[in-house]
Amino acid sequence: MKVAAAQYAIGEPEDFTAFAEGVAAQVAVAAGQGAQVVVLPEYLALEAAAIFEGEVRSDLLRSLDALQALHEDYLALARELARRHALLLIAGTFLLRMDCGRYRNRAWIVTPQGHLAFQDKLTLTGYERATCVLEVGDELKVFEAGFGRFAVNICYDVEFPLYARAQVEAGAQVLLVPSCTDTAAGAQRVRLGCRARALENPLYVACAVTAGEVPWSPALDRNTGTAGIYAPIDRGFPDDGVIAQAEVGWAIAEVDLAAFAANAGHAQVSNATDWPAQLRPQVQRARVERL
User: Fold this and answer.
1) What is the pLDDT of residues 217-229, one digit of tens each?
2) Burial category of 285 from C-beta neighbours within 10 Å (exposed 0-12, middle 13-18, buried 19 and up)
3) How many angstroms separate the CA atoms of 219 and 34, rounded?
4) CB-based contacts of 185: which residues, under 8 Å, 6+ apart?
């Protein structure tokens, strides 16, 4: 199965049609290279806020309010791209207003048949908490597809091992990570989180990122990171666990889901099997020993 994770350069579309054409052009590149699973980045919908007048697009809260009118168009675009290219699309994230008036950072998942599902972000960053209008999701999911089960962690969520662990215990073999980071440190944290989750479970992890300078947006002002696809570090996989990393555009690679079972019998380590050892009552809390 071929997976593609975007290193998506944020632009400044003049209208929603231009936004849609830009996204479509990028997805077509990945599809043209045979991708069957495509991951777009966190906060992708905020690129569409460029179409609003300056006082709206330069204000995050006003941008979020204005974007709600585009939500159905956003989903229609995602469904059309998944159908057109016969692929599973993680359509970035859309900050969707809930009935309580707060917004959830929601990753939309679209099948080639047009079926929709979603995973909400479960842990907010300091920046997201400081907006005072975002809220966390309340459900961790695993999705069944033709190739098997997969899961989604949105950016910061991949830095918390128990989310991915629960998803692996529910059968996930692939973890898809839409992300957006504005500093080199943030990008490193997400990348290391992805690689750690691949190592300890084990599973494949594909991380999409935003890229470029965006002076018109308070949320997408500066974008760092490198799109990548990661594997466990063990026999049958790359020695550094890196399957692909993007320089520009896309990280694209074949992933072999049968490799987990094939290598289980001669693996150097068994992190997933040994996971319960750290949960023994006598080692769950450290004892202080005076020297």
Assistant:
1) 999 999 999 999 9
2) exposed
3) 32
4) none
